[in-house]
Design brief:
CATH class of the largest domain: Alpha Beta
CATH architecture of the largest domain: 3-Layer(aba) Sandwich
CATH topology of the largest domain: Rossmann fold
Largest sheet: 11 strands, mixed
Radius of gyration: 19 Å
Distance between the termini: 18 Å
Number of domains: 2
Number of helices: 7
Order of helices and strands: HEEEHEHEEEEHEEEEHHEEEHEE
Bound molecules: calcium ion
Helix content: 25-40%
Number of strands: 17
Length: 353
C-alpha cells in the first residue's frame, strides 16, 4: 500500500503539472460491492487539522470553491459503488455554477483530503462561496482524546476524520457561505458545523444508516437532494432550484417514503434566511486546479518517472503508455462538459496489465 501511495503521488504531481482545468477528477477503478454499510471501527482517528492557515477578509470578488470527495475503495470487503457517482454529479453541478471544483474519488486517503482542505482554506476568503461534499462510509465511533462518541468519515486508508476535525476546519474557513453535505451512515454529529453562514445536510443522524441505489446509481440522499431537487428542479421552490433548505425538504419527503427509508438531517446556521447554493454574483472560475493558485508552466522536458500508468477513459478506452505521454494525450482530448475525467490504475513496470 505504501508503494502505491508513492506511485499515486507521483502521478498526481505529474497531472498537476500538465493539466490546466477547472475540475480535476481522479478515479482509481476497482471492483465494487453493492450496498453502503456501516464501517468497522478500526484504524486511526484524526481530530486535529495539522496546518496553519492565515485568515483573509473579503476582497469584493465572489469566487466559489468546492471539494467533492467520493471514496469507493475501502479496507476489506467494504468497497462502495456509488460515492464516485455522487461526487461526479456534485462536481458537474457546482462546476456548471462557476465553482472551482476539486473532485477526489476512488482510493482516497486521509492525507490527500487534508491537503485538499488546506488548499481550499488558502484559496477562499470571506465573501467567497465554499462547498464541501462527502459521499462514502461514515461511522459513529469513540474518540479517546475527547472521551465521547463522534461522527466521522471513513477513508480508503482505514482512517477516520471526525466531526471535531471538521469543526476546526469550520472555524478556519473565512467564507460566510459554506455548504456542507454528507451522504454517509451515522454522520449526524456533523450538525455542529451548522453555525452562522453555514448550512449542513446529512443523510443520517448518529444511529441511522443510508445506502446507495442501483436504480438511481447514486446514494439515495444525493439522488433526491442533488439530482432530483437541485438539478431537475423538482422541488417546490419558485426560484432557480438552488435553495438548500427546500432541496432538503424535498429529499426528506422522498427518502422517508422509500421502501427502505432513510432519515436525513439538516443543521441551518441561519434559520430565518434561505441558503442558496449558488447565485449569479459568483465570478468566473480560476484557471487553475482547485482554485486560487496560478497554473504552473509545463516544463519543456517532460518528467519521466520509472512507473507506467494505464488510463481507462470513461471505462471504455484503454491507453497504456509512459506517464508523461499518456497525460499529455489526456489534456488534449478528454474534456467533457468542462470536466476532466481521469481514471487511473497504477502498476509497476514489470507487471502485466
Ligand atoms: Ca473573495
Ligand atoms: Ca461508481
Ligand atoms: Ca481562507
Ligand atoms: Ca437557512
Amino acid at each position: 500500500m505504501h508503494s502505491r501511495k508513492i506511485l499515486l503521488s507521483c502521478v498526481l504531481i505529474t497531472i498537476l503539472i500538465f493539466i490546466n482545468t477547472n475540475q480535476n477528477i481522479i478515479k482509481i477503478p476497482k471492483k465494487h460491492n453493492i450496498l453502503r454499510a456501516e464501517s468497522e471501527v478500526s484504524g486511526d482517528i484524526i481530530n486535529d487539522f495539522p496546518y496553519f492557515v492565515s485568515h483573509k477578509t473579503d476582497d469584493g470578488i465572489i469566487k466559489a470553491y468546492a471539494l467533492c470527495i467520493g471514496p469507493t475503495e475501502y479496507p476489506g470487503d467494504k468497497d462502495l459503488p456509488y460515492p464516485d457517482d455522487d461526487a461526479f454529479s456534485w462536481a458537474t453541478y457546482l462546476s456548471d455554477h462557476k465553482y472551482n471544483v476539486t473532485c477526489i474519488v476512488g482510493y482516497v486517503d486521509s492525507e490527500t483530503i487534508i491537503l485538499a482542505i488546506k488548499n481550499l482554506l488558502e484559496a477562499e476568503d470571506a465573501d467567497d462561496y465554499v462547498a464541501f461534499i462527502y459521499s462514502g462510509h461514515g461511522s459513529y465511533i469513540y474518540d479517546p482524546e475527547f472521551e465521547k462518541n463522534v461522527s466521522a468519515i471513513w477513508l480508503s486508508d482505514g482512517k477516520f476524520i471526525t466531526q471535531d476535525f471538521f469543526a476546526e476546519v469550520n472555524s478556519l474557513l473565512d467564507s460566510n457561505h459554506v455548504f456542507w453535505f454528507f451522504d454517509a451512515c451515522t454522520i449526524g454529529g456533523m450538525r455542529i458545523l451548522g453555525t452562522t453562514g453555514r448550512y449542513v445536510a446529512m443523510a443520517s443522524n448518529e444511529t441511522t444508516y443510508t445506502y446507495g441505489s442501483s436504480q438511481y446509481e447514486h446514494g439515495v440522499f444525493t439522488y433526491y437532494f442533488l439530482i432530483d431537487a437541485l438539478m431537475k428542479k423538482n422541488n417546490d421552490s419558485s426560484d432557480d432550484g438552488n435553495w438548500a433548505e427546500d432541496a432538503f425538504d424535498y429529499a426528506y419527503k422522498k427518502c422517508t417514503s422509500e421502501t427502505i427509508p432513510i432519515y436525513p438531517e439538516e443543521a441551518d446556521g441561519n434559520p430565518d434566511k434561505a441558503f442558496y447554493i449558488w447565485d449569479n454574483r459568483i465570478q468566473g472560475r480560476d484557471s487553475s486546479i482547485g482554485g486560487g493558485n496560478p497554473p504552473p508552466n509545463p516544463p519543456e522536458t517532460p518528467i519521466i518517472t520509472p512507473y507506467y500508468v494505464s488510463l481507462n477513459i470513461r471505462e471504455s478506452e484503454d491507453i497504456s503508455a509512459p506517464c508523461t505521454t499518456t497525460i499529455q494525450i489526456i489534456t488534449n482530448e478528454i474534456f467533457i462538459n468542462n470536466c476532466l475525467f481521469v481514471y487511473i490504475e497504477l502498476i509497476k513496470p514489470d507487471e502485466k496489465y
